[in-house]
């Protein structure tokens, strides 16, 4: 039985780690990238999950033999994910009826001073969505190290890939002792608009709420989950001096608008093998689920294997509404 907030934090953290092992979440992230599948885990535990407009609330958990979880549709996907993880904590630890509002976003479990079941659910959510191994998996894939986490642009890209907010990612990196408290505060002071502008350069956008993904060959074969209006900067190595170029026609056919297409040509002193960086900025404004696939080949050779390919799957449907997409996929497969 919990007697203090330290016991509650330990209990919630252990419960999250146990669920990761049961559902092999680490294997899934290592294989496909992305974040921990919080909604899939909720459904696999037998809970009824639904998304509805909740005025003034983020979520609720109704206990029982078949517990129910309700999450608001009035917030972005990353907030839905954190709310879902918090409510999942209530389910896993068999808490009483819980109705949660904005307060779950502002508090930290280590502060204590509130209901022990809420502290337990907060600790569960933090560890479930942002365990240390999820940062390590993405760092290995991207070639990032501990020093990289001092760069706000890198931390922002990490946050996008794990499906968490920038602020929550900074705090989790500090919680796992990947960065110190001073670095955390320095990162939190960086304006998100400044990070996005540095990625987009001279590309103008109507608003700065949209996210900006930087995608490279290291993202090959992964799945990214974002919002319908997100922007993407593809940075791919190109052997244009040997006649090989990337063909982006398939992206336009898939509904992506190309906002900028440039090449970053190194100086003769630093050029290696005639390789340049092809930089493509694109976006699509409609929700979509599909695969991004482009090839690098000599334009005059229409057949044969390309020099290289870049592929990844994307889910740009945005926030969940009504029946969870995980349930719809199960029904489609049945």
What report would you give on this structure?
The protein starts with a helix and ends with a helix. The protein is α/β, with parallel strands linked by helices. It has 3 domains: 5-129, Arc Repressor Mutant, subunit A; 133-190, no CATH class; 208-315, Immunoglobulin-like. Helix 3 runs parallel beside helix 4 (77-92), helix 4 crosses helix 6 (116-129) and helix 8 (152-162) packs across helix 9 (166-175). 34% of the residues are buried. The chain is built from 13 helices and 12 strands. It is globular, with a radius of gyration of 21 Å. The strands form 3 sheets. The chain has a 4-stranded mixed β-sheet, covered by helices on one side. A 4-stranded mixed β-sheet has the order 5-7-10-9, with helices on one face. The model has no long low-confidence stretch (mean pLDDT 91). 39% of the residues lie in helices and 20% in strands. It has helices at 5-23, 25-32, 38-44, 77-92, 103-106, 116-129, 132-142, 152-162, 166-175, 181-188, 192-200, 249-253, 325-333, and strands spanning 48-52, 59-62, 68-72, 98-100, 212-215, 223-225, 231-238, 245-247, 257-264, 276-283, 289-297, 308-315.
Keywords for this structure?
12 strands, four-stranded mixed β-sheet, thiol protease inhibitor, 334 residues, ImmA/IrrE family metallo-endopeptidase, cysteine-type endopeptidase inhibitor activity, single chain, Rad_response_metalloprotease, Chagasin-like_sf, 20% strand, alpha/beta
């Amino acid at each position: 039985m919990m007697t203090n907030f330290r016991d509650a934090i330990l209990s919630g953290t252990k419960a999250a780690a146990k669920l990761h092992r049961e559902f092999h979440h680490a294997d899934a992230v290592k294989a496909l990238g992305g974040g921990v599948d919080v909604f899939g885990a909720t459904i696999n535990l037998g809970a009824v999950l639904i998304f509805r407009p909740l005025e003034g609330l983020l979520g609720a958990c109704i206990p029982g033999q078949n517990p129910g979880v309700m999450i608001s549709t009035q917030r972005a996907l990353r907030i839905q994910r954190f709310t879902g993880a918090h409510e999942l904590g209530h389910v896993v630890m068999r808490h009483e009826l819980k109705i949660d509002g904005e307060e779950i976003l502002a508090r930290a479990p280590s502060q204590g001073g509130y209901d022990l079941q809420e502290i337990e659910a907060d600790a569960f959510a933090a560890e479930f969505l942002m365990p240390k191994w999820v940062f390590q998996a993405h760092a290995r894939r991207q070639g990032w190290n501990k020093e990289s986490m001092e760069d706000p642009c890198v931390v922002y890209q990490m946050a996008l890939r794990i499906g968490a907010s920038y602020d929550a990612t900074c705090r989790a990196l500090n919680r796992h002792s990947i960065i110190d408290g001073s670095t955390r505060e320095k990162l939190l002071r960086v304006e998100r608009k400044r990070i996005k502008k540095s990625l987009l350069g001279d590309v103008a956008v109507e608003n700065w709420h949209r996210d900006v993904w930087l995608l490279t060959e290291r993202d090959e074969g992964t799945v990214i989950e974002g919002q319908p209006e997100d922007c993407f900067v593809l940075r791919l190595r190109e052997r244009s001096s040997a006649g090989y170029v990337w063909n982006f026609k398939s992206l336009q056919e898939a509904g992506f608008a190309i906002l900028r297409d440039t090449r970053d040509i190194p100086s003769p002193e630093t050029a290696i093998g005639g390789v340049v960086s092809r930089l493509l900025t694109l976006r699509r404004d409609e929700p979509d689920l599909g695969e991004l696939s482009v090839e690098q080949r000599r334009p005059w050779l229409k057949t044969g294997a390309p020099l290289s390919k870049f592929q990844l799957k994307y889910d740009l449907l945005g926030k969940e509404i009504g029946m969870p997409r995980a349930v719809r996929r199960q029904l489609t497969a049945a």
